[in-house]
Specification:
By secondary structure, the protein is α+β, with helices and mostly antiparallel strands. 28% of the residues lie in helices and 30% in strands. A hairpin with a 5-residue loop joins β6 and β7. It is globular and about 55 Å long.
Length: 238
């Protein structure tokens, strides 16, 4: 699963791209550097060939190898670049790609060496697994890119979540369960996350999770910070 923005944002981007195309019928507009690097990345014949198109290739190589090496298949799909959105700053762009029936989003940074894909943000990668966080039970914040959905699970420490707290069901980008997370419904982060999730659908988010001291359950967390309520994007070093 590649990083996926909320449906409304995807629709806005798709409509904008189609409007631009309609405004200049028959014109051939060259792909932007950001779109071109995404196309080259997706067209790479071997997973190792993708390294030249990503940020911090030496750093992410072990993670990419673990993900792709065993089951790698040469790409045979059609790649349609739908459009491009501004990113978190002028250094960033977000490229939407349609592959089959799916809309995938890639975070691209403009560097002196050219446009490069932030692989971790683009696929929703976490350097700590759900199994590891449940085994270590850290009481300090650990950042997760996750897929979130409102839930009503009641736990020993949160007997009345609907009155005082939000309960969020979290999975990783591949659909593996992370657990149940809570935060104060009336806090700024609680209001922000509720607005993002109140439609009842699943949304990409980035949150800091931590255990309460002496946890009795292995998959119940507090959300100590909402980093992003509408995407997986976490700018490196922030």
């Amino acid at each position: 699963m590649k990083t996926r923005m909320p449906a409304l944002l995807a629709a806005v981007l798709l409509a904008s791209a189609r409007a631009s195309s309609a405004a200049a019928p028959g014109s051939a507009t060259p792909e932007s550097p950001a779109a071109a690097v995404v196309r080259a990345y997706l067209s790479a014949p071997q997973w190792e060939d993708r390294l030249q198109y990503v940020l911090r290739p030496a750093e992410v190589k072990p993670f990419m190898e673990a993900r792709y090496a065993r089951d790698w298949k040469a790409p045979k799909y059609q790649i349609d670049i739908v459009g491009e959105l501004p990113g978190a700053s002028e250094d960033w762009a977000v490229v939407e790609v349609e592959i089959g029936e799916h809309a995938n989003f890639y975070y691209v940074r403009r560097t002196p060496q050219g446009a490069r894909i932030d692989w971790e943000n683009s696929i929703g990668f976490n350097r700590i697994s759900p199994e590891e966080i449940r085994a270590t039970k850290p009481v300090w914040p650990v950042r997760f890119r996750a897929v979130a959905q409102l839930d009503d699970y009641e736990n020993f420490k949160f007997k009345y979540p609907s009155e005082l707290t939000l309960n969020i069901r979290l999975t990783d980008a591949d659909g593996k369960s992370i657990g149940q997370a809570y935060l104060d419904k009336k806090s700024p982060d609680g209001r922000l996350l509720f607005e993002a999730l109140k439609d009842g659908r699943r949304h990409a988010v980035a949150v800091d999770l931590r255990y309460i001291p002496y946890p009795q359950g292995g998959n119940v967390f507090l959300i100590s910070k909402v980093v992003q309520s509408d995407s997986w994007f976490c700018e490196p070093g922030k």
